[in-house]
Amino acid sequence: MAATGEALTPQGYIQHHLTNLSVGEGFWTWHIDSLFFSVGLGVLFLWIFSRVGRNATSGVPGKLQCFIEMLVEFVDSSVKETFHGRNALIAPLALTIFVWVFMMNFMDMLPVDWLPTVAEHLGVSHLKVVPTTDVNITFSLSIGVFVLIIYYSIKVKGVSGFVKELTLQPFNHKAMIPVNLLLETVTLVAKPISLALRLFGNLYAGELIFILIALMYGANMALSALGVTLQMGWLIFHILVITLQAFIFMMLTIVYLSMAHEDH
């Protein structure tokens, strides 16, 4: 598949699917497709949950309301078991992260050529439909969490308390302040980096496997049949992957914010 209609080599096919629709250059490059799908899925999440909330009934709930209530209870119990503090923001934040990340991950379940082919007919040369395969999106999410970590660390402990946490742990001696500062700074900075790269790496690898399987179609009947089998098997396994990655991102966010609320 190509914007001009010519056949692509396997290498070109893979590169085509891994290239974002972009505008700008260098640092100011904007990945339009990642922004479109991430924002669009976020709006869809808000619309569905707000609609169910407005129409919620105390009687026998419908299937959608029942599913959302189960989801809310699951996230709420996860927060109560993990977050050791009082903050009305944590549970809604955890719910938003879990559902939003899962929805972005779920775009990986769509056949790799469906939406890009539609986009090609509309004159769009490239289209990546899984926002979490874009490291810019995953880092945006993790940086948002990192800002909350810093904010609540200072709010709960004060500036002096936060500075002491960075300089007097794990070795409570003034002579060890440089070592403590180095260790604690690395630990602090590693939190958003690990959040972003874990989500990006798993989803990027999953998308690449789907693309490689798609290359098997049309080669010959044997490879096409094998491709169907492999795709179904990977699809089933990948459902677990996308759910687990959303859950891990949510749980690590709760854990990090719980640590930020602990006043030593």
From TrEMBL:
It is found in: Cell membrane; Membrane. GO terms for biological process: proton motive force-driven plasma membrane ATP synthesis. The keyword Nucleotide-binding does not apply. It is a multi-pass membrane protein. GO terms for cellular component: plasma membrane; proton-transporting ATP synthase complex. Key component of the proton channel; it plays a direct role in the translocation of protons across the membrane. This is ATP synthase subunit a.
